[in-house]
From TrEMBL:
Residues 13-370 form the Enoyl reductase (ER) domain. It comes from Entomomonas moraniae. Pfam families: ADH_N, ADH_zinc_N. The lineage of its organism: Bacteria, Pseudomonadati, Pseudomonadota, Gammaproteobacteria, Pseudomonadales. The keyword Oxidoreductase applies. This is S-(hydroxymethyl)glutathione dehydrogenase. GO terms for cellular component: cytosol.
Length: 372
């Protein structure tokens, strides 16, 4: 197989619009697969990296990590995937062999994490080129390209019965929010929950908290336009911190007779992370950080908050092991156990991808799905 041409949105430098161009893509090498991306969501993490505040941000690169597609070719030695398989590329792979995979304690497979963070395939090179010069991969997935090459261990094979233009959102946002509730926090029926940030992640947290039977789900955002959907998905209370002249954690502690059982930060704002911890109930409340903060940002609280029993933890991709567990989540979607449609507020062709970023920054979208 020779080099192919693919249409892609290139991030040439931070804070500049993506440029739609044709680039060259090498065929899949040993242990790699070529995927035709059918659709991809645009997640806030793509905007974060494009903004230049991601310490691992590297340019020029092809962003995108919330995609779904079809296997077009497999490289030497690939045994678990075949041409025609429907798949979701994984930014958190699952090799099944590394210390992390074998620990039974985490989904954070580290088999290819170092090269992935440098925008490279596991052999230390790129597959994308423009006029002979390498274009870097992003999160090991680069779904803002019609064709992409991904390591076999970073591909979940899913049912052919689901629409790829919907389940692409399981490649990051919806899975992350739902998994943070069920795997990381392990919210149970009757628990109270506070959710900070009502984008794709926060709304998925709300949806899952409702499903497990949370008694009270407090949704917090500075954009009240997000409240209707939050209520539809299960929020019992919607709060805009701008409506109060005291810290939002104090408001929530008063509302809940001492604080919530669980809180989730779904923004990436270190000050809000503090509020999310401090609105948790003394003695047992747990706060899960999902939001991603920029280089140099740090969280702070009085250690007393932890001494007195609150717990701070984090969650990546909802603690979900992509190859073994994501196909089961897709099956749950097929069985009608949760909604994806509610999250898709816009659909655009790749040519208009910069509009998807504008809509996100203007607070007008939950998820824009880019259809190739
Ligand atoms: P989004 O931009 O769609 O939503 C963020 C929401 O936060 C918006 O509704 C915005 O109005 C609200 N917000 C902003 N500042 C606020 C404040 N001070 N107080 C209250 N609300 C505020 O983003 P998203 O795609 O839902 O992603 C959310 C965060 O999660 C981002 O930081 C993203 O990078 C991160 N993320 C992490 C993981 C993970 O695995 N840990 C996965 C996906 C996304
Ligand atoms: N490069 C960033 C890391 C950002 C980050 O934490 N990413 C999440 C996924 S966000 C998806 O929208 C993640 O999976 N983290 C685990 C990991 O290994 O990156 C930075 O800040 O350096
Ligand atoms: Zn994401
Ligand atoms: Zn592993």
């Amino acid at each position: 197989m020779k080099m192919i041409k693919t249409k892609a949105a290139i991030a040439w430098e931070p804070n500049q619009p993506l440029s739609i161009e044709e680039v060259d893509l090498m065929p899949p090498q040993k242990g790699e697969v070529l995927i035709r991306i059918v659709a991809t969501g645009v997640c806030h993490t793509d905007a974060y990296t494009l903004s230049g505040t991601d310490p691992e941000g590297i340019f020029p690169s092809i962003l995108g990590h919330e995609g779904a597609g079809i296997v077009e070719a497999v490289g030497e030695g690939v045994t678990s995937l075949n041409v025609g398989d429907h798949v979701i590329p994984l930014y958190t792979p699952e090799c099944g062999k590394c210390k992390f995979c074998l620990s039974g304690k985490t989904n954070l497979c580290q088999a290819i994490r170092t090269t992935q963070g440098k925008g490279l395939m596991p052999d230390g090179t790129t597959r994308f080129f423009k006029e002979g010069k390498p274009i870097f991969h992003y999160m090991g997935t680069s779904t803002f390209s019609e064709y992409t090459v991904v390591p076999e261990i970073a591909v979940a094979k899913i049912s052919k019965d689901v629409p790829l233009e919907k389940v692409c959102l399981l490649g990051c946002g919806i899975t992350t929010g739902m998994g943070a509730v069920t795997n990381t926090a392990k919210v149970k029926s009757g628990d109270s929950v506070a959710v900070f940030g009502l984008g794709g992640i926060g709304l998925a947290v709300i949806m899952a908290a409702k499903t497990v039977g949370a008694s009270r789900i407090i949704a917090i955002d500075i954009n009240p336009e997000k409240f209707d959907l939050a209520k539809k998905l299960g929020a019992t209370d919607c709060i805009n911190p701008k409506d109060y002249d005291k810290p939002i954690q104090d408001v929530i502690v008063e509302l809940t007779d001492g604080g919530v059982d669980f809180s989730f930060e779904c923004i990436g704002n270190v000050k809000v992370m503090r509020s999310a911890l401090e609105c948790c109930h003394k003695g047992w409340g747990e706060s899960v950080i999902i939001g991603v903060a920029g280089a140099g940002e740090e969280i702070a609280t009085r250690p007393f908050q932890l001494v007195t029993g609150r717990v701070w933890r984090g969650s990546a991709f909802g603690g979900v092991k992509g190859r073994s567990q994501l196909p089961l989540i897709v099956e749950d979607y097929l069985k009608g156990k949760f909604s994806i449609d509610d999250f898709i507020t816009h659909e655009l062709p790749l040519e208009d991808i910069n509009k998807a970023f504008d809509l996100m920054h203007e607070g007008k979208s939950i998820r824009t799905v880019i259809r190739y």
